[in-house]
Amino acid sequence: MSEPRSSIDHLLVGVSGSIAILNLPTYLVALRAAFAREVRVIMTGAAAQLLSPSTVALLCDEVFLDEVPTSQKRPGHVELANWADMFLILPASANILGQAANGLAQNLLTTTILASQTPVIFCPNLNEKMWSKEAVQRNLRTLTEDGHVVVGPKHAPAYEVGTGVVTDTLVLPEPDVLIGRLEKMLRQF
Ligand SMILES: Cc1cc2nc3c(=O)[nH]c(=O)nc-3n(C[C@H](O)[C@H](O)[C@H](O)COP(=O)(O)O)c2cc1C
After folding, report:
1. Strand pairing report for 165-171 and 154-160
2. 7, 30, 183, 188: least CB-packed within 10 angstroms?
């Protein structure tokens, strides 16, 4: 009998404009070290405003941004979706949840989500007031009903940019906890 898989070859990480992007480098290092042989990243325009794509490029194999079409051949949304053994959205903004739940394809990341043939794993990070909105909860339900996976945030003390204080808020699961969840999913997919 073959051993259960605990790592993958190709991990695609979609990064959107949530403040949790400040922790993205830690996640990329952990995912590359313990889970995926090759990691490609797609950043939205809002994400690229919050964290430099050049910094992200130091910690993954390739970064993809929204660009106007050129004659240069490069992987587009369909190729990126096909390449991925697993597609993780980390962090997922309220906007990305809403776009994906409604099948909208406004940029490279949302278009690649729509082109994905495997379930997409969303790791939302939003302020508690946004998280508790019925519209957001409805989008999360829709994504789950459509066969995607939502790895919910947890409560922990963290620095809140809006107020400038450390407060109990919603944060992404720790990298080792997330990797444990992904390994479990590998056995289920
Ligand atoms: C400093 C800053 C922090 C933000 N943090 C969050 C966040 O944690 N969660 C969220 O859903 N939106 C957050 N936003 C708002 C999103 O960036 C905004 O909705 C944007 O349009 C998302 O675009 P995207 O989903 O294409 O990346 C933040 C915006 C700024 C300027």
Report:
1. antiparallel
2. 188
Reference 148, options 106, 181, 117; nearest CA is 117
Taking the centre of ligand 1 as the mean of its atom positions, its distance from the CA of residue 129, in whole angstroms, is 14
Please indicate whether residue 139, judged by its CB atom, sits closer than 6 Å to ligand 1: no
Ligand 1: distance of its center to the CA of 16 in Å? Answer: 7
pLDDT tens-digit series, residues 32-89: 999 999 999 999 999 999 999 999 999 999 999 987 666 666 789 999 999 999 999 9
Q: Which residues are catalytic?
A: 77
Protein residue whose Cα sits closest to atom 22 of ligand 1: 17
Atom from ligand 1 closest to the CA of residue 130 = 11
Residue with tokens 């990691």: 39
Among the CATH numbers 3.30.230.10, 3.40.50.1000, 3.40.50.1950, 3.90.190.20, which is that of 8-188?
3.40.50.1950
65 lines ligand 1 (CB under 6 A): no
Which amino acid, 12?
L
pLDDT exceeds 70 at position 4: no
Supply 13's token pair. 């990480």
Taking CA atoms, 128 is separated from 44, 135, 170, in Å, by: 23, 13, 6
CA distance to 42, 108, 117, 136, 159, per residue, from 79 (Å): 13, 12, 11, 30, 38
